[in-house]
């Protein structure tokens, strides 16, 4: 690793965790950047910041670069392309190209840990309610989701959806006993009456998913292989591993196909097969 990028921008919609940290934790962030330099020996540390917070970001001691506020420009693969001018090849990670990403909150926690002599055990995150409003809260890592909902007087009804993360890239959980984790940036609940419908209706080849894809994947063809369970063919012929999992294709899909979920499943299954083959060699 020769470059560290600190994400002062939030990865999903309706989340303000990183921006709040950038404004409120300036001293801790600056100390965290110093610790990163001392422990890693890496001088090239970049702060990715929205334009309106450049002044706050500049206090960190890291080189500041502006990220487009329009989603999904804050995702690591697009920061690599737009800020560093380096395209991550399909099947490779940012780390493979020598770049490591870390959240600004993690850097602030690092600074606090060294300054105060104890490990921070509280996590800041957004609670996104059923009406779409968002509140920024802090809770001890390990706190059950039910306690967070109880604090906000949020009732969970049959078929409501609980999501860790934002509306575009978040993942559903199935129990209110699930704990807040160190990487939890948002806790979202959707009323079952407002859930976007998904279906197994076939692709109508409208082509809306192609121009919106930041990775320029021919999604309308890719999804046909994924629906048929032909994951290896999807990887070989239609750039499965080029997908950065932004979720825009699922959002725009006229047929309401859960394309992002198909893609994640395909990557998981191919990874599982590859692991099994390496184990048996």
What would you note in describing this structure?
The chain has 281 residues and is α/β, with parallel strands linked by helices. The chain is 37% helix and 16% strand. The chain has helices at 17-24, 26-40, 54-58, 76-83, 104-116, 145-151, 209-212, 219-227, 231-237, 248-252, 259-280, and strands spanning 3-7, 45-49, 63-66, 99-103, 122-128, 134-140, 161-164, 171-173, 186-190. The protein has a five-stranded mixed sheet, with no helix packed on it. The chain has a four-stranded parallel sheet with strand order 3-2-1-4. Strand 5 and strand 6 (134-140) form a beta hairpin. Helix 2 packs across helix 5 and helix 8 packs antiparallel against helix 9. The chain is globular, with a radius of gyration of 20 Å. The relative contact order is 0.12.
Please render the helix and strand layout as text.
Elements: E1 3-7, H1 17-24, H2 26-40, E2 45-49, H3 54-58, E3 63-66, H4 76-83, E4 99-103, H5 104-116, E5 122-128, E6 134-140, H6 145-151, E7 161-164, E8 171-173, E9 186-190, H7 209-212, H8 219-227, H9 231-237, H10 248-252, H11 259-280
Helix pairs in contact: 2-5, 8-9
Could you give a short account of the major beta sheet? 5 strands, mixed
Class from helix and strand fractions = alpha/beta
Using the CA coordinates, give the radius of gyration: 20 Å
Q: Helix proportion of residues, in percent?
A: 25-40%
> Judging from the principal axes of the Cα atoms, what is the shape?
globular
Counting H and I runs of at least 4 residues, what is the number of helices? 11
The proportion of residues in beta strands is: 15-25%
Order of helices and strands: EHHEHEHEHEEHEEEHHHHH
Number of strands: 9
Stretches where pLDDT falls below 50 for ≥5 residues? none
Tell me the strand order in the biggest sheet.
Answer: 6-5-9-7-8
Distance between the termini: 30 Å
């Amino acid at each position: 690793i020769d470059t560290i990028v600190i994400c002062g921008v939030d990865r999903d919609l309706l989340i303000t965790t990183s921006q709040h940290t950038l404004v409120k934790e300036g001293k801790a962030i600056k100390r965290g950047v110093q610790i990163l330099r001392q422990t890693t020996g890496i001088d090239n540390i970049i702060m990715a910041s929205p334009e309106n917070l450049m002044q706050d970001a500049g206090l960190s001691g890291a080189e500041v670069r502006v990220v487009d506020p329009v989603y999904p420009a804050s995702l690591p693969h697009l920061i690599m392309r737009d800020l560093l001018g380096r395209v991550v090849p399909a099947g490779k990670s940012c780390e493979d190209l020598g770049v490591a990403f870390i959240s600004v909150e993690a850097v602030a926690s690092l600074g606090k840990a060294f300054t105060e002599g104890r490990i921070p055990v509280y996590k800041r995150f957004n609670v996104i309610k059923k009406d779409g409003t968002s509140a920024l809260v802090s809770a001890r890592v390990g706190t059950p989701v039910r306690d967070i909902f109880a604090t906000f007087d949020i009732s969970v009804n049959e078929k409501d959806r609980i999501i860790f993360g934002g509306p575009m890239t978040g993942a559903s959980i199935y129990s209110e006993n699930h704990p807040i984790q160190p990487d939890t940036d948002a806790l979202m609940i959707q009323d079952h009456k407002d859930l976007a419908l998904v279906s197994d209706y076939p692709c109508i080849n409208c082509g809306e998913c192609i121009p919106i894809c930041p990775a320029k994947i021919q999604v309308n063809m890719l999804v046909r292989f994924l629906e048929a369970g032909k994951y290896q063919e999807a990887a070989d012929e239609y750039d499965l591993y080029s997908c950065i999992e932004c979720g825009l294709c699922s959002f725009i899909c006229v047929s309401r196909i859960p394309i992002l979920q198909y893609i994640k499943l395909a990557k998981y299954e191919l990874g599982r097969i590859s692991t099994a083959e390496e184990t048996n060699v």
